[in-house]
Amino acid sequence: MARPWRVAIVGGGITGLAAAVWLRDLAPAGTEITVYEQSGRLGGKLHTGELAGGPVEFGAESFLMRDPTGAESGAVALVRRLGLAEAIVHPTVGQAALVVDGGLRPVPGGTLVGVPGDLDKVAAVAQPAADADRDAGRPLLGPDQDVAVGALVRDRLGDQVVDRLVDPMLGGVYAGRADDLSLVTTMPALARAARSEHTLVGAVRAAQAAAPRTAGAPVFGTLAGGLTTLVEAAARVSGATIRRDATVRELHRGPAGWRLTVGPTRDPDDGSRSRRGGRRAELELSNVEADAVLLAVPARPAARLLAGPAPEVAGTVGGLDYASVALVTMALPEPELPELSGFLVPATEGLLIKASTFFTTKWGHLRRADRLALVRASVGRYGDEASLQRTDDELVATVHRELSKVLGSALPTPVAGHVQRWGGALPQYTPGHLARVAAVRAALRAAHPTLALAGAGYDGVGIPVCVRSGETAAEEIITALGGSAA
Fold first, then answer.
1. Distance between CA atoms of 245 and 264, rounded to whole angstroms?
2. Cα separations (Å) of 151 from 115, 186, 240, 371?
3. Closest-CA residue to 26 (of 81, 85, 86)
4. How is residue 13 annotated by DSSP?
């Protein structure tokens, strides 16, 4: 009888857990799946906590209901697979605002991540450059061309559209700058349209027409019990062996597959010596064998593991940079808040905060009988990590002061607050990112077909993208081991 497959998944975020579920569903019965998570908690950036006696997300708060083609998103499909569909809830308030000249203005409709398909609709927020978006008789982009979002939009529509619309929207998602981020990676639908359209407004309209939305259909969803319930259900249904506080320190080819060197997240080396010969933390390391390995960790730890078996791609993988952010959540007694889901802040406004969400306004299921409002602000932009060196108390005080300024009146003193720091959380995709990832994966398939990469560092941010990334990598491993992922 053939020995069961042994698959090691490095990383217990939603990417790794989605891969584990997919493997359980499609790999041969008896497949041994082990998830190694260096922290003591599964879920990565999905982290439901508690503040002032109520639930609140300290990481990602929601997922897209549809993918770019209009089909059900990977997140929704996973939720259904795990039996959680009845827990999906949607925002009760969807209108957001932008801070412009110190005040709030509604986010205009008809844009694609801030890039307008109708110039008149954005006039209250930004003035597009006159006659800049002219038809030059050729497509905006060549067949394989990638550019920075900001470069294209500034050239076609001027600085205000970038600074007041596109940059804050991209900053809210990536904590990055429009002038640095890849169009192909962050706005794939617009990039596809730009390969045939001659104007940027025309490309936006074409991209929107290619993925029509049903009127009134919700764009976002979350789970009433918190997104940690998704994490817990995925871990349970996968049937995987979960090893928390387990860092995979090295990865090498073994006699019949792969050998992983695994140890505790922190070396238990406090200056004391073991009773046997003075050996220290090395005694805590163990070697495990696997037939296939799926790396679902950020780019730099992945690069360190790739340095042994695939040094030719490790440098490319490790070259991806990340932005750090802090999420500051406050419980405020009966504040006067506008009927908005929240607001975005252009960097040109000179504020520390880059976005804010009014949780208990946006999400009806979070509204409380005691009328406490949960308000969260995001702090930190790529290249401005110094702002995160402030203490938690300083961040809370600054966020409270800036929110009061934007809203035009002093907010009540918070009865509780929480600061969640996410170091190196958001990948910064520079132009050419997807081409580089494709080259890395092609090299791995050729030399090491049972070694796969998955996650936000390669395929994009957001729960649906991470889920699909993990599932695709799982399918590749099944195929490489001689099975069928059909």
1. 6
2. 13, 14, 45, 45
3. 81
4. B
Separation CA 73–CA 370 (nearest Å): 35
Concatenated DSSP letters of 45-96: T--EEEETTEEEESS---EESB-TTSSBPHHHHHHHHTT-GGGEE--S---E
Residue 23 is given by DSSP the state: H
Alpha-carbon span 325 to 334, nearest angstrom? 28
Contacting residues for 12 by C-beta, under 8 A, at least 6 apart: 35, 36, 37, 39, 42, 43, 44, 235, 242, 244
Q: What pLDDT tens digit does each residue of the chain (486 aa) get?
A: 578 999 999 999 999 999 999 999 999 999 999 999 999 999 999 999 999 999 999 999 999 999 988 899 999 999 999 999 999 999 999 999 999 999 999 999 999 999 999 999 999 999 999 788 999 999 999 999 999 999 999 999 999 999 999 999 999 999 999 999 999 999 999 999 999 999 999 999 999 999 877 778 899 999 999 999 999 999 999 999 999 999 999 999 988 899 999 998 765 444 433 334 444 445 588 999 999 999 999 999 999 999 999 999 999 999 999 999 999 999 999 999 999 999 999 999 999 999 999 999 999 999 999 999 999 999 999 998 889 999 999 999 999 999 999 999 999 999 999 999 999 999 999 999 999 999 999 999 999 999 999 999 999 999 999 999 999 999 999 999 997 665
Positive or negative, the Cα torsion across 137, 139, 143, 148?
A: positive
Q: Are 165 and 111 in contact, with CB atoms under 8 Å apart?
A: yes
Q: Is the torsion defined by CA of 151, 157, 161, 165 positive or negative?
A: negative
Token output for 361: 């306004």
What residues have CB less than 8 Å from 195, skipping those under 6 apart? 139, 140, 141, 142, 143, 145
Cα separation of 400 and 413, whole Å?
Answer: 8
Q: Which amino acid is at 97?
A: A
Q: What is the pTM of this model?
A: 0.93
Tokens of 29: 């019965």
Whole-angstrom distance, CA of residue 81 vs CA of residue 182: 33
Token pair for 472: 């695709």
How many whole angstroms separate alpha carbon 186 and alpha carbon 207? 14
